[in-house]
Design a protein that fits this description.
Helices cover 35% and strands 11% of the residues. It is α/β, with parallel strands linked by helices and 221 residues long. The radius of gyration is 17 Å and the shape is globular.
């Protein structure tokens, strides 16, 4: 499925009859509707950030639903696409927090390669219909991924922005891990506690305290 260590970690899922039936249903959705991200990008977050490389998890909701935007990474858009408002606010906070210049593109592949698992809770969406695949079954897989990461011996930083992401807190029970929460970076809520929350420096300070190489948030590819 993935081509790296996630295949072994998720073997029980991949081999289950229930998941095979679910994937067949998703394949059918791709046949009868326009669905994002492109089929080969659905598991992009897992492909770019193997299990053993995960230092940070940023939980999103579902993929962007506009043409050419989603490519399987939470909050990220493909090169050449206008930076979405939530990501613009993430960049503003990154600048205020660490002084990293605000980027003009929204492709976060570099973060994924740094060890930031950019995981949406729902991995597909119908064009122009946000949350259209919520409760289809993706949550069972992505909750399981968080549970697997929760068991990891090495400390992980979980960054949970907004109430939807905070619902995953009950899955993170290992005291070795560090949870950062704030309101969502959306324009509707960023001024109510996201701006000024300094998640990037908090994340790196924790990683360094654990003897782990910090994230180079300026990395682009």
């Amino acid at each position: 499925m993935i081509g790296n260590s996630w295949d072994e970690k998720l073997k029980v899922i991949w081999e289950s009859e229930g998941f095979k039936k679910f994937l067949a249903m998703i394949d059918h959705e791709y046949l009868i509707h326009t669905v994002y991200p492109p089929r080969n990008y659905i598991f992009n977050a897992l492909k770019l950030t193997p299990y053993e490389n995960v230092k940070v998890v940023i939980v999103g909701q579902d993929p962007y639903h506009g043409e050419g935007e989603a490519h399987g990474l939470s909050f990220s858009v493909q090169k050449g696409i206008k930076v979405p408002p939530s990501l613009q606010n993430i960049y503003k906070e990154l600048y205020d927090d660490l002084g990293i210049p605000i980027r003009q593109d929204g492709d976060l592949t570099g973060w994924a390669k740094e060890g930031v698992l950019l995981l949406n809770a729902v991995l597909t969406v119908e064009k122009d219909k946000p949350a259209s695949h919520r409760n289809y079954g993706w949550e069972k897989l992505t909750d399981y991924i968080i549970k697997v990461l929760n068991q990891k011996e090495e400390p992980i930083v979980f960054i949970l922005w907004g109430n939807f992401a905070k619902e995953k807190m009950n899955l993170i029970t290992n005291p070795k891990h560090y949870i950062i929460t704030s309101p969502h970076p959306s324009p509707f809520s960023a001024n109510h506690g996201f701006f000024g929350s300094k998640p990037f420096s908090k994340c790196n300070d924790f990683l360094v305290s654990q003897g782990i190489e910090p994230i180079h948030w300026e990395r682009k590819d």
